[in-house]
Specification:
This protein is of the alpha/beta class. It contains 11 helices and 10 strands. The chain has 2 domains: 153 residues, ATPase, nucleotide binding domain (Nucleotidyltransferase, domain 5, 2-Layer Sandwich); 169 residues, Nucleotidyltransferase, domain 5 (2-Layer Sandwich), CATH 3.30.420.40. Bound molecules: 5'-O-[(R)-(carboxyoxy)(hydroxy)phosphoryl]adenosine and zinc ion.
């Protein structure tokens, strides 16, 4: 079975061809970063316009790379939410048009579920597992019982972890997107003496990252003269990163311990972070847990993850109603 995945929920125009829910024949991601970087963050209007410009080319490239044509496709899987409404509409409209004109089956996919399913592109993980989805738009904790059942446990009450990375990088004048830049600048650095307070919400699996961003801003304003020194900026970024990583690891492991779950999957753009991966592996080992990450290019937004999530939705008998609209606020609890 050949599945065409289409993903346009944010600022990446992506298409992939997946064979039998496992083998990636192509996985094309066109980043719009240069168009947004000048504004220091994603501009929704620009994102939708660029999706319109790129989508046909990206899908065509994915098909060519897989050495197939559209008529060979058995199923289309497209992201229906959450994300930016204008961006989602481009992918959904394109996918529906192909489905109707060539009479190809179509399923809708929740973007968060796509991130969780990305791990199955590489490994078969035993259920149940704890899933931490940590990206630019989301920081959420679930227990996944099987391919169609999961339970929500917690989320960020304000900024997503990736958003905090991007905002702190902006405060430090590092450019956009901040996560990969901070990751690269702090490679293999030990934990610094400098530390920033991070909210630990008691008796809850929720997170909060807006306070630490404000603490960094306050610190930078107070130490204006030192901020011209790159090493000082790296020290600040490193302290911020350690605080975020420690709270993510601690909450996730406490959910795994409390619910007696052995396997943990960490996914989403921030799961590409080197320190997060390192600390997770160390702490999980100490606690007798197994932690798995998709490879980095499958952690960040891509369409192969949408194709595999769509495959399991299809096996579950689901299909996209052509009347269904994109839902920018779609939650996984609803799916
Ligand atoms: O999953 P993703 O590609 O898109 C969303 O669904 O949001 O995640 C993008 C986010 C951005 O905030 C970016 O700064 C962050 O993931 N990110 C990272 C790294 N690579 C991407 N954060 C920390 N370290 C990284 N290596
Ligand atoms: Zn994402």
């Amino acid at each position: 079975m050949l599945i065409l995945g289409i993903e346009t929920s944010c600022d990446e125009t992506a298409a992939a061809v997946l064979e039998d829910g496992k083998k990636i024949l192509s996985n094309i991601v066109t980043s719009q970063i240069p168009y947004h970087a000048v504004f220091g963050g994603i501009v929704p209007e620009i994102a939708s316009r660029k999706h319109v410009e790129f989508i046909a080319f990206v899908v065509d490239t994915a098909l060519k790379k897989a050495n197939i044509s559209l008529k060979d496709i058995d199923l289309i899987a497209v992201t229906v939410g959450p994300g930016l409404i204008g961006s989602l509409i481009v992918g959904m409209t394109f996918a529906k048009a192909i489905s109707v004109s060539l009479n190809i089956k179509i399923v809708g996919v929740n973007h968060i579920e796509g991130h969780i399913k990305a791990i199955f592109l590489e490994k078969d993980i035993d259920f149940p597992f704890v899933a931490l989805v940590v990206s630019g738009g989301h920081t959420e904790l679930y227990i996944v019982y099987d391919h169609t059942n999961l339970k929500f446990f917690g989320k960020t009450r304000d900024d997503a972890a990736g958003e905090a990375f991007d905002k702190v990088a902006r405060i430090l004048d590092f450019g956009y997107p901040g996560g990969p830049i901070i990751d690269k600048l702090t490679q293999n650095l030990p934990k610094p003496k400098l530390s920033f307070p991070i909210a630990h919400i008691p008796n809850s699996y929720d997170f909060s990252f807006s306070g630490i961003k404000t603490a960094v801003l306050r610190y930078v304003k107070k130490h204006k003269k030192e901020i011209y020194n790159l090493n000082k900026k790296i020290e600040i970024a490193n302290a911020f990163q350690w605080a975020v990583v420690e709270v993510l690891v601690e909450k996730t492991l406490s959910l795994a311990k409390n619910e007696n779950i052995r396997n943990i999957v960490v996914t989403g753009g921030v799961a590409a972070n080197s320190l997060l991966r390192r600390v997770f592996l160390e702490k999980a080992k100490e606690s007798g847990k197994n932690v798995y990450f998709p490879k980095k290019e499958l952690c960040t937004d891509n369409a192969a993850m949408i194709a595999i999530a769509g495959y399991y939705r299809f096996l579950n008998g689901e299909k996209l109603d052509l009347e269904e609209d994109a839902n920018p606020n779609l939650t996984l609890k609803e799916t």
